[in-house]
Design a protein that fits this description.
The chain is mainly alpha-helical and 146 residues long. It has one domain. It is built from 3 helices and 2 strands, in the order E-H-E-H-H. It has a two-stranded parallel sheet with strand order 1-2.
């Protein structure tokens, strides 16, 4: 069976080595993926020359659902497949400022979402490794001119 690898894109706005809740969630995703036999690594996007918002963009209405949907749709349009429930995040209690990394016991909902992300992603990756699409012998399905 093919080796399955994962890349977690940590989209915190805080540069290394500043701790972030996104980094904490990413580590938890990698731990769950490891339990599924998947090797992985995390890349902190802010440490690279990628232009995006500023720290004042964080907080209420940060649009996590919308952003996840837009990213998954964009990936789909260029040929990537995202597993169902293939994202996790935590926004905390309404009107509170507690970061996920500073929270005591982690919320069950975030833990379940993270575990589901790992299970679904590892399962889909294995299925696609065994039976890719379009099939290697397909004609006119995007692999070569029709």
């Amino acid at each position: 069976m093919a080796s399955i690898r994962a890349l977690v894109l940590n989209c915190t706005l805080k540069p290394s080595p500043v701790p972030s809740s996104s980094e904490q969630l990413g580590r938890e995703v990698l731990a769950e993926l490891t339990m599924q036999g998947v090797d992985g690594e995390m890349l902190r996007v802010v440490d690279h020359d990628v232009q995006f918002g500023v720290s004042t963009d964080e907080g209420d209405g940060d649009g996590a659902h919308h952003t996840i949907g837009q990213v998954q749709q964009a990936l789909n349009e260029v040929g990537f497949t995202c597993a169902g429930a293939g994202a996790t995040y935590w926004v905390g209690e309404a009107l509170h400022t507690l970061d996920y990394q500073d929270a005591g016991p982690k919320p069950d909902t975030t833990g379940r979402t993270t575990k589901t992300l790992a299970l679904n992603s590892a399962h889909l990756a294995r299925l696609l490794a065994e039976q890719p699409y379009p099939p290697p012998d397909a004609k006119g399905a995007g692999r070569e001119p029709a």
